[in-house]
Prior knowledge:
This protein has 274 residues and is α+β, with helices and mostly antiparallel strands. 21% of the residues lie in helices and 30% in strands.
Amino acid sequence: MNTPEQSELGKPSAYADQYDAALLFPIPRAGKRQEIGVGAQPPFFGADMWTAYELSWLNLRGKPQVALAQLVVPCETPNIVESKSFKLYLNSFNNSRFADAADVLARLRVDLSEALSRGAATVGAPASVGVKLLLPEMFDREPLQELDGLNLDRLDIECSRYTPAPDLLNAAFDEAPVSEVLTSHLLKSNCLVTGQPDWGSVQISYSGPQIEQEGLLQYLVSFRNHNEFHEQCVERIFMDIWTRCKPAKLAVYARYTRRGGLDINPFRTSYPQA
């Protein structure tokens, strides 16, 4: 079983200049999920949405091609792919020749699906990863927008705890339930291995007992010195709110700032939605 410490994170790495699928380094989700009380049947489903801003390859005549890659990784996959290994893998396309963008897309889908399903106990086809390539003529169609919802950052609060403190969460169980969408731009955590900062915005949509907003913002700030991967932080936030505030419905979505040409944006929800 691969562990984060065995990956290339925080180590000098040689950059392969020819396509090499073996560079992908899968890490099982199960260990971190066990830490937060997630069993074989998680109370959520969803996906990790990746954007790769630095993707290039050569056409058959040796001319460089560029594209953005958008990937949707189902959270049901047994593994995540460690982000530095994914960057090294993408760099291995740089001096490799492919027939066209469709050929590159097919390689990405096959390689990632295999790595994300590697070691799974079930027999059959690997989990399908959604992959979309945006060529340069499509770049200006990608909008930038803020997360919808009431911004918690407006609150003038005192913060003194900088490791996850779920006891800060509280809800009005003796009052009528509400439906709210709350956001914050103050989410910060650190890479599990290197300690490098990860900056993000988070959106929390729920129906149920009204969550006390000051405590929720203090709780989100409490991740500031916490070391975990993006996917693990979002699942921890989901489980802490799910357990302590007991909403009837809950969705947690984080948009992280890209690092190394990649952003990772996990979404976890207890109910079906678009």
